[in-house]
Specification:
171 residues; mainly alpha; Globin-like; 2 domains; 10 helices
Length: 171
């Protein structure tokens, strides 16, 4: 079978636009079908998980991306020599992946965090309470930037707060 030759710029652009729209429509349909299958038989009285209320994997990954960019550029945090060294040693993409997986699991999503525990990941960084508060301020700024509702922000801070004693190890 020989395909017709498309030579006109506008015709190529139209064909590409059509293919893109068809691809987006297909992905949206698959996501909707997967969501329906995942929630099939769910009790109507069950509230959606925090993961679902936040918008799922892509929304969480977007928030984590912004948050890690903020903390990576934070002069207060980088004044800690151990944190600064870790920033130079750990690729940002890997850190973003691990934090995203952690947040997805913590919010009730379908992925599992397989990284090191919080003590092993942070003890050598000698994080102080002031640095923890700086991280919290950056997290709040990210959540506000993406207009995450206050209820969900409170739940996120409660989840992150459970890691405080494992992460804050210095005076």
């Amino acid at each position: 079978m020989k395909l017709p030759r498309v030579t006109s710029g506008p015709r190529i652009a139209a064909l590409l636009a059509f293919c893109l729209l068809a691809g987006v429509a297909t992905i949206a349909t698959l996501q909707q079908t997967a969501w329906a299958e995942h929630h099939e038989g769910d009790d109507a009285d069950v509230a959606p998980s925090l993961y679902d209320r936040l918008g799922g994997t892509y929304a969480i990954a977007t928030v984590v991306d912004d948050f890690i960019d903020r903390v990576s550029a934070n002069d207060t945090l980088n004044a800690n020599p151990a944190i600064d060294a870790a920033r130079k040693r750990v690729p940002p993409a890997g850190l973003k992946f691990q934090v995203t997986a952690f947040m997805i699991q913590a919010t009730g999503g379908p992925y599992k965090y397989h990284g090191r525990n919080m003590v092993d990941s942070h003890t050598h960084l000698h994080i102080t309470e002031a640095e923890w508060q700086t991280l919290a301020a950056d997290f709040k700024a990210t959540l506000d930037h993406f207009e995450v509702p206050e209820k969900e922000q409170g739940e996120l801070f409660a989840l992150v707060g459970t890691t405080h004693d494992d992460i804050v190890t210095a005076e």
